[in-house]
Amino acid sequence: NSKDIGELHLITDSLGVIHGSFHLPENIVPGHAAIYSSGDHGFNAYHQINIESFRQPKFDVKLDALTFAPQFDRQFEVTGNAISLTDVPVDGAQVSWNVGIANNSVHPFCIRDEFGTVRVGSGEVTTAQDGTFRIPVTVPSDILIADYCLVNVRVSVTDLNGETHDRNMTFSVGSPNNVSVWTQHFFDETGIGMDLDLQLND
User: How many Cβ atoms sit within 10 Å of the Cβ of residue 33?
Assistant: First the structure.
């Protein structure tokens, strides 16, 4: 509103640098503010800053680690909970979720989403009275080019007051088949030759 909200008088140091700080009024509304500076020799400067509101979070979201080995083409559940910072369950919160498979494990013709994964599930659920929620997940094998993949689960939880928190977790399905190589001695004393250790992981 073109009103002054603070003023400082500063002196430059030996390097020509100034330092200072001021507190914004508590009743200031979010928006834009500007810092103007003027010196004794006609030097003027201007810089615009954003003023944003801050709300203390009222709850937190956690996704539970898997206690089993998930398998391809068999539905399983990813569980989580929404709990207030005073340890009260958040009941009736909306949970939007999606599940994607890492790009390097699927056929190239599969469409990638905005996260670079191939989405294999999405939907919405609601937290129960105890703050918990359950997400059904099925990892299809027919789009894979390997016997192993990384799966990413993303959730966005919004309570009845409109506060939202996002969480995600990544886990593996299947067993990787690869060969690992470690160099034991790259060169011997004469400067030639190389020894290698090979390990095959099934």
Answer: 13
Distance of CA 191 to CAs 10, 18, 186, 188, Å? 65, 59, 9, 5
Phi, psi for 81 (deg, rounded to 5) = -150, 155
Q: What angle do CA 95, 99, 105 make, to 5 degrees?
A: 170
Q: Can you give the three-state secondary structure of 100-134, one letter per residue?
A: EECHHHECCCCCCCCCCCEEEEEEEEECCCCCEEE
pTM of the model: 0.62
- pLDDT tens-digit map of 79-105: 999 999 999 999 999 999 999 999 888
The answer on pLDDT for 18 being more than 80 is no
Alpha carbons 56 and 40: distance in angstroms, whole number? 43
Instruction: Centre a 10 Å sphere on the Cβ of residue 115 and count the other Cβ atoms it contains.
Output: 14
